[in-house]
Amino acid sequence: MEELHSETPKAEPEPSPKVIGLTGGIGSGKTTVARFIEEFGFPVYYSDDRAKSIVNDSEDLKIRIKELLGEDAYDKNGLYDRKFVAGKVFNNKDLLQQLNEIIHPAVRIDFEEWVKKQTKYLVFKETALLFELKLNRQCYKSLLVTAEDNIRIKRVMDRDGKTYREVEAVMEKQMPEKDKIRLADCIIYNNTNLEDLKEQTEKIIFSIE
Questions:
Q1: Known binding site: residues?
Q2: Which of the two ends of the chain, N or C, has the fewest CB atoms closer than 10 A to its terminal CB?
Q3: For residues 155 and 30, is the Cβ–Cβ distance under 8 A?
């Protein structure tokens, strides 16, 4: 009689977390919303912060950025000089695009490795350039934090000590809010106070299925 062998059922792989792209223009309150999201127990990947680390830690990126922008892209201590770089690319779209093509693939790989370590069903990728770089196409949903222009300008003036015109010049370089609103899956309007902002954040993130 043929002996029957029972096979141990294979464990189902853990489902990958759903990635929510979190974005907002200067003075929108995007970072504050990100902190609320963390308070509610969900992990947030801060793209800009990680990019700051990567451009300082990767010798390959250092070489390529210096080739593009010159030795002054890094200071005498070998650290990325954000002020110098910002001055070089602020009015030069081609140079900015070339810089992004160096940095953003490295950030994408870093993010993918970060996601693998997460255990929550939702993870949030905070990035100012979600729509500009079409990163929203790689996300399950996009979440935009927005506010009226005059409110955003005042916030940045108070926070950074910049003039009205300086803030306005930065905003003019960013994608118009109306275009972001059209592209976003979920929107938080940060025009009132922190309590309202937190309530909106909680309502939206816990409604995502």
A1: 27-32
A2: N
A3: no
DSSP E strands in 112-168: the ranges are 122-126, 141-146
Token pair of 168 as six digits: 């306005």
- Separation between Cα atoms, residue 46 and residue 44, nearest integer Å: 6
With residue 155 as reference, give the H or E element that holds it: helix 149-160
Q: How far apart are the first and last CA of the chain?
A: 52
What the chain holds in terms of domains, given with CATH numbers, is 19-42+121-208 (3.40.50.300), 44-117 (no CATH)
Encoded tokens for 8: 């141990």
Q: What is the pLDDT of residues 42-91, one digit of tens each?
A: 999 999 999 999 999 999 999 999 999 999 999 999 999 999 999 999 88
Could you tell me if 121 and 132 are in contact, meaning their C-beta atoms sit under 8 angstroms apart? no
Q: Which long-range contacts (CB under 8 A, 24 or more apart) does 107-111 make?
A: 107/47, 107/50, 107/51, 107/54, 110/50, 110/54, 111/45, 111/47, 111/50
The answer to whether residues 98 and 61 touch, using CB atoms and an 8 Å cutoff, is: no
Is 189 strand, coil or helix? strand
CB of 162 closer than 8 Å to CB of 58: no
Instruction: Please state, in angstroms and rounded to a whole number, the distance separating the CA atoms of residues 79 and 58.
Output: 11
Q: Which residues contact 167 (CB under 8 A, 6 or more apart)?
A: 26, 27, 152, 153, 156, 157, 160
Annotated binding-site positions for ATP: 27-32
pTM confidence score? 0.86
